[in-house]
User: Fold PNPLA domain-containing protein from Trinickia dabaoshanensis.
Amino acid sequence: MKPHAPTQRQAVDAADLHRESGVRPPRPFGYETIALVLQGGGALGAYQAGVYQGLHEARMPIDWIAGISIGALNTALIAGNPPERRATRLREFWETICRPAYFSGLPAAFEFALFDSFDQVRTLFTASQAASAMLQGQHGFFVPRFPPPLPGMSDQPEKISWYDTSALRDTLVKLCDFERINEGETRVSVGAVNVGTGNFVYFDNTRMVLKPEHFMASGALPPAFAPVEIDGEYYWDGGVVSNTPLMEVLRGQPRRDTLVFQVDLWSACGPLPRTIADVAERTKDVQYSSRTRFVTDTLAREQRYRNVLRHLLERVPRAQRVSDPWCVEAAELSSNKRYNVQHLIYRRKAYEHHYKDYQFGVSTMREHWSAGLDDIRATLAVDGGLALPENDMGFITHDIHRTK
Assistant:
């Protein structure tokens, strides 16, 4: 077996980050909204940071960011900083949380050498990093709760978890400007689940003032992390119900011509498991991919129906369209808006296993980042890929990996 090529660490060097001026660039192809949709997936979220760097390089304006779990944390870092500082803040965040909480990791040169070795060595090395995350936590993110919760013993809801995420709040406050988030220049929506009702909710800066707790709630995956209290209610990670906030964006009101960059960390497609560890990994892939293809297919059909309804209404006399209550309601349901969903999905590596979402090694983070950067560059390079749909449905999707 041949060794891996050296990891593309230069992809996240600050010197390589393109700077944007304060002038907001025009939206391509006449879109009214450009949205970034970020799925949950723990340590895999560095892939999303790489995607954002590519959008940053292309001077792509972002009007709306929707995230869940680690996607919500990336959302806070992007929306909570000016465009010229966002990629740098993302890098600072990821290099912070990919350090062990207490005991120092291996020297950088030794870690990179192990990581760039054979699959068997890389598998053992990344497994040890995942074990370290479980035993001591990650710097600026979470640490083991002491004393740990014991079976049969009750406690306050915010203490019923294996890990304490108090450090995450400090990290977010340090790296994000929450006043900027709430000014609303970029719309922000992060998903969570109400523990008491089981209802899925979106915390949105067009409807409320967002605080660090809203983003932490979106990433409070039980039983590892405790629910977060907000206004007397407790919330868990949105991925408990749905790990992809695409529907929130595509059903947004008022409807607008929208370009969506949907960045998924789990692929619904994958190899047949051959070992019990493969079963654990494949289960996560299927569970947390949240039926993304089903969602896009459903929304595409909805948009087709809205277009059909619009065409039918055009055949009704104007006076009747205005006076007939059924026609009025039909007009509200119809739409001539168009949607283009650019789907970027992280593709698993041969050395990864079921612990890939809590394997917070610096080398792995940089590889994930580079993969996201490569994928968005390839996506943006597709001729006509970002154009407004011209089909009858008014809805198209594109996945660069499906065209390779």
The chain has one domain: 28-399. DSSP finds 14 helices and eleven strands in the chain. Residues 1-23 have pLDDT under 50 and may be disordered. Residues 28-399 form a domain with the Cytosolic phospholipase A2 catalytic domain fold (CATH 3.40.1090).
